Amino acid sequence: MKKIRFSRVVTFSVTSVLIFLVLLFFIFRNSSVIKKVATPINGVTTKIDHFVSYPFRWASSAKDEIVELFNAYSENESLKKELAEMRDQSSTVDSLTEENKSLANALEIEKAFSSYETITSDVTVRSTLSWYENLTVGVGKNDGVTDSMLAVSDGGLIGKVSDVSQSGTTLQLISNSEGTYEIPVKFSSSDGDVYGILTGYNSKKNLLIIEELNVDKPMNAGDSVTTSGLDGKSIPGISVGKISSISDAKELNKRKVYVTPTADLDNISYVTLIGK
């Protein structure tokens, strides 16, 4: 009985192996079967791979975004720094350009009035509280400054000497609405010269006031005004400005002429003092 059972087991095992081999042979011989079996397996494998690799792909993407953000920040900071440097350089260039212009004008004034005493200096004191009233330059009696000198900047009259020390000079500006000037001037028109006195400044209109005209002659807006020197102390020929308007007073002694100054009274860097 034992031999019969062993023979059946062996026979069953051999039969199973043969069936399995035939099945494998059939599968490998039939590609469509392979595809049918492989397709769902590949699908499951792909999903598993996609799921497992997602954190790594997210980390890689986040890393790239952080790197780009850092690079953008660094570039932005660099551009800000370059822009600030360019602004500083631009401001320096503008300042130097303005200074060179003032110095060039001062040189031209010295050449034009070479027969007189001319002294050029930079502005050392100009208070914001008295910006349009007075300023101080860094030259005085030791440099040859006298009480009768007129002050010129950027080619035009800006004031006159009001106080002189050994090393400094205070100027009363023609924009001082409370000041007294009494500077003789001359109008040059097509009908001949007219003389008057610079007496004040209209701060609301930013115009000089000239009165005490000597003759009743036609004058027009745009006519030039210069110093006349008829007081015997001041220098003639310094540009004062151009006529802006004339009051309609019929009486000559009440007539006023309003003049736009030649000089920029807001921006005074260098001053040339001119006297005899």
Tell me what the structure shows:
This protein is of the alpha+beta class. It has two helices and twelve strands. The strands form two sheets. The protein has a six-stranded antiparallel β-barrel with strand order 1-2-5-4-3-12. Strands 6-7-8-11-10-9 form a six-stranded antiparallel beta barrel. β1 (117-125) and β2 (134-137) form a beta hairpin. The longest helix is centred in the N-terminal third of the chain and has 82 residues, at 31-112. The chain is elongated.
From the structure above, extract its key features.
276 residues, alpha+beta, six-stranded antiparallel beta barrel, six-stranded antiparallel β-barrel, 12 strands, disordered N terminus
Record the SSE blueprint.
Blueprint: H1 2-29, H2 31-112, E1 117-125, E2 134-137, E3 150-153, E4 156-164, E5 169-173, E6 183-189, E7 192-202, E8 207-211, E9 224-227, E10 239-246, E11 257-261, E12 270-275
Antiparallel strand pairs: 1-2, 1-12, 2-5, 3-4, 3-12, 4-5, 6-7, 6-9, 7-8, 8-11, 9-10, 10-11
Question: Quick recap of the structure?
Answer:
By secondary structure, the chain is an alpha+beta fold. The chain contains 2 helices and 12 strands, in the order ααββββββββββββ.
How would you characterize the largest beta sheet? Answer: 6 strands, antiparallel, barrel
Biggest sheet strand line-up = 1-2-5-4-3-12
Low-confidence stretches: 1-12
Distance between the termini: 156 Å
List how many beta strands DSSP finds. Answer: 12
Sheet-strand content, in percent, reads 25-35%
Specify the structural class: alpha+beta
Average the pLDDT over all residues and give the rounded result.
80
Compute the gyration radius: what is it?
49 Å
Count of discrete alpha- or pi-helical segments spanning 4 or more residues:
2
**Fraction of helical residues:** 25-40%
